[in-house]
TrEMBL record:
The lineage of its organism: Bacteria, Pseudomonadati, Pseudomonadota, Alphaproteobacteria, Hyphomicrobiales. Keywords: ATP-binding, Ligase, Magnesium, Metal-binding, Nucleotide-binding. Residues 175-185 have a biased composition (Basic and acidic residues). PANTHER family: 5-FORMYLTETRAHYDROFOLATE CYCLO-LIGASE, ATPASE INHIBITOR/5-FORMYLTETRAHYDROFOLATE CYCLO-LIGASE. It catalyses: (6S)-5-formyl-5,6,7,8-tetrahydrofolate + ATP = (6R)-5,10-methenyltetrahydrofolate + ADP + phosphate. This is 5-formyltetrahydrofolate cyclo-ligase. Gene3D superfamilies: NagB/RpiA/CoA transferase-like (3.40.50.10420).
């Protein structure tokens, strides 16, 4: 892992702040409409239909809302798991529509601790910024990078980043441990990813 004060991390922090400011500036109606359109585009990804358990996230702040996607996953018979932040990293537990969530760190809503941990084979990944190489800038703690690495030890994990188009940047300063996402989707539909 790169040191905490590396030039890449400083640049990522700047790019993250700029992208989040653009996201924060979107009107609520555009965010709600965008979440519905992104959900439909994600459902059209063929490989997602093969995942019995999909890891999704509960939105915070001005994040694109994946709850319309969760409703559609339930409607087609797929199960959903939500993450909990622990000292060991993200732990996913199944969530069913209507179940109460508990307050977690970072203002997160998380599944109850008494539910068993499960390993999804597909992940809907939140992000602060992205580029067309499929690289993402997260929120800086590396939780999703670690979760993808851990889950990949069980077999392939389908990763789908979800964001608003205003979060796109020219190039993410990727570090050696960063892994590109398989798909990126915004309110305008799938983002065409360039190879290499």
């Amino acid at each position: 892992m790169a040191p905490h004060s590396s030039p890449e991390r400083s640049l990522k922090a700047k790019l993250r702040a700029e992208a989040l400011a653009r996201r924060d500036a979107l009107p609520p109606e555009a965010r709600a409409d965008g979440a519905l359109r992104a959900a439909e585009a994600i459902l059209a990804i063929p490989e997602l239909g093969d995942a019995p358990l999909v890891g999704v996230f509960w939105p915070i702040r001005s994040e694109i809302d994946p709850r319309p996607l969760m409703q559609r996953l339930f409607a087609r018979g797929q199960r959903v798991a939500l993450p909990k932040v622990t000292k060991q990293g993200l732990v996913f537990r199944e969530w069913r529509a209507g179940e109460e969530l508990v307050r977690g760190g970072f203002g997160l809503s998380e599944p109850r601790d008494d539910l068993p941990p499960l390993d999804p084979t597909a992940l809907i990944v939140p992000l602060a910024a992205f580029d067309r190489a499929g690289q993402r800038i997260g929120y800086g703690a590396g939780y999703y990078d670690q979760a993808i690495e851990r889950l990949s030890k069980n077999g392939p994990v389908l990763t789908i980043g979800i964001a608003f188009s205003v979060q796109e940047i020219d190039r993410v300063p990727a570090e050696p441990h960063d892994r590109p996402l398989d798909h990126l989707v915004t309110e305008t539909g799938p983002v065409p990813l360039r190879q290499g």
